[in-house]
Design goal:
Protein name: Tripartite tricarboxylate transporter substrate binding protein
Number of domains: 2
Oligomer: single chain
CATH class of the largest domain: Alpha Beta
Largest sheet: 10 strands, mixed
Pfam family, one: TctC
Helix content: 40-55%
Shape: globular
Distance between the termini: 69 Å
Organism: Plastoroseomonas hellenica
InterPro entries: BUG (IPR005064), Bug_dom1 (IPR042100)
CATH superfamily of the largest domain: Bordetella uptake gene, domain 1
Family: Belongs to the UPF0065 (bug) family.
């Protein structure tokens, strides 16, 4: 009989315990910040620096744990976060690959809806995409390269860090805006192999985020000749934009945004957004990110973040359709 009474009492306590658990203030356990790429890249750097500054802003006992879940161009890590409970303890660093170029180029094999399956939180940073040539290339500016490509259709080859990468779509867009240029695209398995190939002259030009190109450019192994931004970049003020080179409307940047699973409570979204904006506004953080070629965004809203991703995805889908692109292996 006493055992039965104890069991009944324990059962009676369940609703109380559940209510108490639900009433615990957020965050009461570590927030896992998933980076869908290997450690050591610019996205990884941004996430780790920002997590350090967000923790005290979220509460005295708040903790954020950065985890790398790489694979399939960021798809694996993104899908992992999509499947997590919408309780504020799982967030994602998303990029053009995870929520723009790859879903646009490979919709059949992307296992999630990049818009409908996630909750927008904040835009963390943007970085330029640069047009680069080998250090011994005769082309000193975009106009010279474009003239050579027009003079010998199909003769040149160009590289990117992978099929469906932001560099791939930027190169295809350049070809479209330049009047339908023809050249062979060679996708590499990441930024480091691409830069090595470019220094060796295996390809005549490449599109890649500036952060991957900057060191080799400073050493003279490669030369940046065009920027995808609408204004010149302070790291390379002598390099013209592609709009200056005559490609009206050309703009290509890579970006990092913070997302959560679908259905994240608005109160948690607002707290994460405020902490991200405040953390990114710390001057020391801004200086470190600027040195890595990342321009922090300190005033985004969840609504603006969602609109930004939707606009980027639509633009990439338009490029894929107009260039009649198919996935490359």
């Amino acid at each position: 009989m006493p055992t039965r009474r104890l069991a009944l009492a324990a059962i009676g306590m369940l609703p109380f315990r559940q209510a108490r658990a639900q009433a615990q203030p957020w965050p009461s356990r570590p927030i896992v910040f998933t980076i869908p790429f290997p450690a050591g890249g610019s996205a990884d750097l941004l996430a780790r620096l920002l997590a350090e500054r967000m923790m005290p802003l979220l509460g005295a006992n708040a903790r954020m744990v950065v985890e790398n879940r790489a694979g399939a161009g960021g798809i694996i890590g993104s899908e992992f976060v999509r499947r997590q409970p919408a309780d504020g303890y799982a967030i994602l660093l998303a990029t053009p690959s995870t929520h723009g170029t790859v879903p646009a180029l490979q919709p059949e094999t992307t296992p999630y809806d990049p818009i409908g399956d996630f909750t927008p939180i904040a835009i963390m940073g943007r970085a330029p995409i640069a047009l680069a040539v080998p250090g011994n290339s005769p082309h000193r500016d975009p106009q010279a390269l474009l003239a050579a490509l027009r003079a010998s259709p199909g003769a040149a080859s160009w590289g990117s860090s992978g099929s469906g990468s932001i560099g791939h779509l930027a190169g295809e867009w350049m070809n479209l805006l330049a009047g339908g240029l023809r050249s062979e695209h060679i996708p590499y398995r990441g930024g480091a192999p691409l830069v090595e190939a470019l220094t060796k002259g295996e390809v005549q030009y490449a599109w890649e985020p500036l952060g991957s190109l900057a060191a080799a450019a400073r050493d003279g192994l490669i030369r940046c000749i065009g920027m995808g931004t609408t204004t010149r970049h302070p790291l390379f003020p002598d390099v013209p934009t592609m709009q200056e080179a005559g490609l009206a409307g050309f703009e290509a940047t890579t970006w990092n945004v913070m997302l959560g699973p679908k259905g994240l409570p608005p109160a948690i979204v607002q707290r994460l957004n405020a902490a991200a904006n405040a953390g990114l506004a710390v001057p020391e953080l801004g200086e470190r990110l600027a040195a890595a070629g990342i321009d922090p965004v300190t005033d985004s809203t969840p609504e603006a973040t969602g609109a930004f991703i939707a606009a980027e995805l639509a633009r990439f889908r338009d490029i894929v359709a107009r260039a009649n692109l198919r996935p490359q292996r």
